[in-house]
Specification:
Elements: H1 2-22, H2 25-41, E1 47-54, H3 62-66, E2 74-76, H4 81-88, E3 91-98, H5 111-130, E4 134-138, H6 149-165, E5 168-171, H7 175-184, E6 192-194, E7 222-226, H8 235-246, E8 254-257, H9 263-275, E9 280-283, H10 289-298, E10 299-303, H11 313-320, E11 325-328, H12 333-336, E12 343-345, H13 349-360, H14 364-377, H15 382-394
Parallel strand pairs: 1-2, 1-3, 3-4, 4-5, 5-6, 7-8, 7-10, 8-9, 10-11, 11-12
Helix pairs in contact: 1-2, 2-5, 5-6, 8-9, 8-13, 11-14
Keywords: Transferase
Protein name: Peptidase M14
Pfam families: Glycos_transf_1 (PF00534)
Length: 396
């Protein structure tokens, strides 16, 4: 019998070499099947469920929260699919969980390269499906932001394909279903699984944090725009509205913080720093967790000025700190935000200015109450979120 196992292993390795040479997806599935027979024969202990996820956004705590209940039964997608096959062969139930799709096209500077990446990912999907994986796709964006048209085209085609082959399509707001069905021209409501975005775990150890750009300055009760600065986030419009509001409310303060990838905002912000040194702070860099929590803890309101958005993790970060947000009336905000727990505006600069002026005239105590209601409106603690996710995949 030992020799038959050695033959199995030899056959398994030859099959994978064939896959590597020819890139035929079914050879990888055959490799998995042979390996599974070896595991079953040797009576290895298998996990109830294992998850391979893609991509890994390590800088964002979201995935750590989602998978925290899985302990060692999860891994990020490997560059070598054999690593994933080995990992998944040790599970009774297997999940391939897809998040942000743009990472498939990293380095694609032409349509030809994008097409190859698109087709390569479709072949890998066939492997995961062929070994019995249930595919879960979390919709984070209507279409990934700030992509060239030739990539957006393949992103849309891939989303349509996922609507067909996935087991569950996870959404963070109920209105995402209708928005995406209309956008893609397909129906997937029978596969949709609603699980609201979680609040974040926060350790309150940041009260003595010193932000170098704010050192030695008495800066409190400020509006806060925090996060990587990219064109779709509308920070240039925020600066225009804020400067206009300053003419009638001289005491309004604003902090714009995050690595800037929008040259127009960078130029505008440097001008604002010189013009309004007592009112405006610009922090053009990545921030530590302690700095992020400090800025939220000491702000008055979070400002989210997206030009387009479906789901915003920044909204939930502000709500975690019991801070209200100024939000455009698009995407999840039309479902989550009302006059009781936040501030909606119509995406125009005059509309944003009007909200900023209104906040400047509200008592701080009233704004704090609105922030508490923003927190209370969110249904998922990070512990609940991970537990509910585990229920979803165990029931697959």
């Amino acid at each position: 019998m030992a020799s038959s196992i050695l033959d199995y292993k030899k056959n398994r390795d030859l099959i994978y070499l064939s896959y590597k040479r020819k890139k035929y997806w079914w050879e990888a599935v055959n490799w998995f099947n042979v390996n599974s027979k070896i595991i079953k024969y040797k009576n290895f202990i298998q996990s109830d469920v294992r998850v391979v996820y893609f991509p890994n956004y390590a800088a964002n705590p979201y995935q750590n929260i989602m998978y925290s209940s899985l302990n060692s039964d999860k891994k990020e997608k490997g560059t070598e699919i054999i690593d994933d096959l080995c990992f998944l062969s040790m599970a009774k139930k297997r999940i391939f969980h897809i998040h942000w799709l743009k990472e498939i096209f990293v380095g694609c500077d032409s349509e030809e390269k994008a097409k190859l990446c698109y087709e390569g990912f479709l072949d890998e999907l066939k492997i995961y499906i062929g070994i019995g994986c249930k595919i879960i796709w979390t919709i984070h964006n209507k279409v990934d932001h700030d992509q060239p048209d030739f990539i957006s085209k393949y992103l849309i085609e891939l989303m349509k394909h996922l609507c067909d082959v996935t087991y569950k399509i996870h959404v963070h707001s109920l209105n995402s279903i209708g928005i995406m069905e209309e956008f893609l021209g397909v129906s997937f409501k029978d596969k949709a699984y609603y699980l609201e975005h979680p609040l974040y775990p926060v350790e309150y150890k940041y009260k003595k944090t010193v932000i170098p750009e704010m050192k030695g300055r008495k800066f409190e009760n400020y509006l806060l725009s925090l996060g990587m600065i990219r064109p779709y986030k509308g920070v240039a419009q925020l600066l225009s509205a804020y400067e206009s509001a300053l003419r009638s409310n001289k005491n309004i303060k604003l902090v714009v913080a995050g690595r800037c990838l929008d040259p127009a905002v960078d130029d505008f912000s440097k001008t604002m720093v010189n013009k309004y040194p007592g009112n405006f702070v610009y922090i053009n860099r990545s921030l530590s967790d302690e700095e992020v929590h400090y800025l939220y803890a000491n702000c008055l309101v979070s400002v989210l000025t997206y030009q387009k958005i479906l789901i915003s993790g920044s909204y939930y970060m502000a709500s975690t700190h019991k801070k209200p947000s100024i939000c455009p009336n698009i995407g999840m905000f039309t479902e989550m935000v009302n006059e009781e727990n936040g501030f909606l505006y119509d995406q125009s600069i005059p509309g944003l200015k009007e909200v900023i002026n209104r906040i400047a005239n509200l008592p701080k105590e009233q704004i704090n109450e609105i922030g508490k209601r923003s927190y209370e409106k969110c249904s998922n603690s990070y512990e609940k979120f991970s537990e509910k996710y585990l229920e979803l995949i165990r029931g697959s």
